Structures are given as C-alpha cells and as structure tokens.
Amino acid sequence: MTRRMQLFFVTALAVLALASTGADDGLKIGVVDMDQALSATDEGKSAREELGRKEREARGQVEPMVERFQALQEEVKGKKYVLSEEALFEKQVELAELKNKIENKMKELEGQLQIDQGRIVAPLRAKMLEIIEGIGKEQGYTLILERGTPGVIYTREALDITDIVIGRFNKKG
After folding, report:
1. CA dihedral over 25, 144, 155, 14, signed as positive or negative
2. How far is Cα 52 from Cα 55, in angstroms, rounded to an integer?
3. How is residue 138 annotated by DSSP?
4. Which residues contact 38 (CB under 8 A, 6 or more apart)?
5. Model confidence over 53-82: pLDDT tens digits?
6. What residue numbers bound the domain in which 146 lies?
C-alpha cells in the first residue's frame, strides 16, 4: 500500500468517525504508541530479554567463524610474498569458502530471529489490541490511532492513552 493510499485510508476513517457521531456526542480520539506500550509491559520486557538472549546466542555461533576468517586473512596477508602461487590460491579459496559460510549462517540466523520475534511478539500485540479495543469501548472513544502510522503526523499529548494501556495490560498479565 502506497503512502498516499495509507494517508487516504486514515483520513477516510477519521471522516467516517466524525460523520457517525451524532450532534450530541462528542468526538473522542486516543493515540497509542504500540512500541512503547509493548516494551513497557512486564511481558514485553520478558520478550525483549528473550529476544536479546537469542540474539547473543546467534552472535556466539558466528563470532568464532569471523575470528577464524580474520586470522586466515591476516595469515594470507603476512605470507602473501612467501607462499607459492598454488598455496596462496588455496588460502584464498579457503577464505572465500569461509566467507560464504559466514554469510549463509548469518542469513539463517537472521531468518530464525525474525521467526522468533514474530512468535514472541505476535501474541503480545494481539493481547494489546484487545485491551485497546476494550478501553475504546469502555471509555467511549470514537477513534484510537497508533502513533507513528502513516497519516498521523501530530497529536497532542493529552490524547495519548499509552500509559492506560500499559497499566491495563500489566493487570491482565
């Protein structure tokens, strides 16, 4: 979806919300910073710690390979003029193979980290959306927007309900 389409969609929602409110009803809009809310909840902090641990483990798998690559690179650089052409070629082939292994391992680990992040964060996000919807219904909000989404350029701090969402999320925990 292009940025223009997203802006149109948000604007259309706001117009529909305004049109659907009666003359007696006041327009009540809230804004939530989902990233802040997710990272500030107890479960979000646990998720962030788990993802950090997985990231450190992934780094631990790649670092020995990178160190071996750097050592081999230094060895080739230092012995470049002493080694025969055949021996130098073999070292360069070994360097290229090791570089490919490192790149493949990094892609594999990045993919796994993305999967882990989705698996860990998706349920928290779904729970957060339920809580936001509940707050919206209970407190009579006409519209609740996510801070940072296309179309939301500025909001007054008074519209921000992130702290309310965090408190409710932690209570439900």
Report:
1. negative
2. 5
3. H
4. 44, 47, 121, 124, 125, 128
5. 999 999 999 999 999 999 999 988 888 888
6. 3-172
Please count the structural domains in the chain: 1
pTM over 0.90: no
The dihedral built from the CA positions of residue 129, 38, 135 and 168, taken in this order, carries a sign that is positive
Instruction: Phi first, then psi: give them for residue 150, nearest 5 degrees.
Output: -55, 135
Tell me what the mean pLDDT of segment 27-56 comes to: 91
DSSP letter, residue 142:
S
The rounded distance, in Å, linking the Cα atoms of 121 and 162 is 17
Q: What is the phi/psi pair of residue 125, to 5°?
A: -65, -40
- Rg of the chain over CA atoms, in angstroms? 26
Is residue 152 within 8 Å of residue 146, measured between CB atoms? yes
How far apart CA 105 and CA 46 sit, in angstroms, is 27
Which residue is it, tokens 């130098």?
88
CA 27 to chain centre: 32
- Alpha carbon separation from 51 to 119, 129, 159 (Å, rounded): 11, 21, 31
CA atoms within 13 A on the CB side of 17: 17
Residue corresponding to tokens 């882990």? 116
